[in-house]
Structure formats: C-alpha cells, structure tokens
Amino acid sequence: PGSVLAAFQEYLQHLGLHDFPCGLGSWNKSRLNASRSPRAQPVGLEEAVPPGEETTEVLLELLRDQHSPWALPPDCSPQAQSLREVVVLAPELLLGSRVFQLVKSLRILDKGVEEVDEGLLQFQQLEELILSANHISRVTSAHLPRTLKVLELCYNDVDDLQDLCAQPPLELQHLGLGYNRLCGPSQEKHFTVDFWPNLVSLDLSFNSLTDLLGLVSQLSTLQNLRILLLQGNPLALIPTYRGFLVDSLPKLSILDDIYIWAEERQQFHGLAKQPELIRSEARLVVSIGEVTGLPNPEDFQQLEVGSEGPVIACTYFVTYQF
Questions:
Q1: Quick check: 87 and 59 in contact, CB under 8 A?
Q2: Which parts of the chain span the membrane according to its record (predicted)?
C-alpha cells in the first residue's frame, strides 16, 4: 500500500473484523436488527438468542482462548485484540466508517507506506501514530488529526519539515524523526514553541544536523521539553556537545538516553555562556588494525647495498567515506 489509509484497510483484513466470530453474519444478525429497532428492550430482560446464533460471551471466548483457531498470535498488539472484542460487542460499528472512531493508536511498521494521505482525518480520536520503517519523505500537517499526541516517523526518508510545520497538531507531546535525512540549518528552524507548544520528547538522532548553536537557540524555546535525542548527528562530534546542551537546556531530564543528574549539571554550569568553545570541527582518530593483500615495505629494505636488483617504490592511499 502506498498510503496510510490503504495500509490500515489491509490491517483490518488481517484482523478479520468482517469474519466470524467478529463482523456481521448469521451468527449475530438478530442483535444487529435489534440495535436498529426503535423499540427499546425492557430493563432486566434479555432476549433469547435465536437458533443458529451465538451469544457475545461465546464469541468473546473464541477470541480470547489461546487454543482457539480464531485467536490472534501472542505478539499482536493489545490494540488489535481490543478492536476485535469491541466489534463483537457492537457489530454495527462496522457499517460505514464508524470503525475509525474506535482507533486511538495506529501502528503501521515497514509496510511500504509513502504517503500520509487525507484519509487519516477519519481517525477523529487518534492520539498515537507510529509510521516507522516506511518510505515517507514528506508529511502534510493538514492530513493529521488534531487529537494527535504522539507522532513517530523513525527510519523514513524525511528531508524537509516545511509541510509538517504548516499546521502541526498543537497537542503533540512526542515527535520522532530519528534515522531520517534532515540537514540544517534550513530544518533546525522548525523546532520552536511556535510549532510545538506542548512537546515533551523529541528524537532527532542519526540525521545530518550540524549547527549546534543554531539548534539550541530553537530548542530553548520549548519550555516543556524533557527528553532529547541528538546522537548520530555530526554536531554530536563536537567535544563540548553534551556539556553545552546540558547547561543550555536546564529543564532537560534525559539526553541521548542518559539521565542528567544534578552533579553533571553542576559540572557544566556556565558552559552555555561560552559559545566560543563550540567549534565547527571534529577530531577523529582512526586506527588500522591489519592490512592484507599488499606488499610489505620491509621486504624491499632487505636488498644489500650496491645490489643491481631493481628498486621498487610503493605508495598507498587510503580513502574514508563518512
């Protein structure tokens, strides 16, 4: 599937919501007709289940029993199981697009999704959207539900945030953009309180961000930011990287999955006021353990002085690609 909506439709088929013991069929048709009837059932009375149909208790047991042929695999998400059980209790939700109202968390991982389409707006109660390990390069914010609190886009091809920041969901608390193709400073300007007033957690790890000073000036406006991941970016190679961030963002609790203790904050106190220590350069030490398949220069040094043998000079070049 190329879009999120298409991937979700495929997901519904995998869950078998339209098939026994979920869905609508001969096993529960009288309950559906009763739900459509305007005549209310008297309180305290339960209508007998007609022959050939099953009670909701029996249908739920078929879903929950691990030995049942209709049970989901143990590694399926609780959301999947909950969705199936709700449909058993209220099969009329499968009519039209009412099933979208049941979904608060949507996880579509490694399904070849390339587009966050406007069909996502049908999920009017959606709070968590996980789209990791797909092929998404752009996200249009107008296609995101306003109720969204978690947006995870790790391991994609995102290289520009302009469309995402046009009308971002203001209630968002976590934004995951790790392992993408972001490079600054054109992208670093998008991480301010103007776009993300309630952001608590931000993952920008393993991108190509280079401007530490520029990024910190933007992040310092995020008053609710407590968790930040920047490891894997070129700016993380700067010698004073961690200390400068710890002192520049006093409300930060976790940096690169490491908790910031009071002792560390005291150790780097005042470093934020010395931006001259931030150099746009990094030092790498590369050690070569062993080289095979090349002539040993010492073999040519074994020739005796005055020997008429040919003199061979060897020069080697080593290229590093980062």
A1: no
A2: none
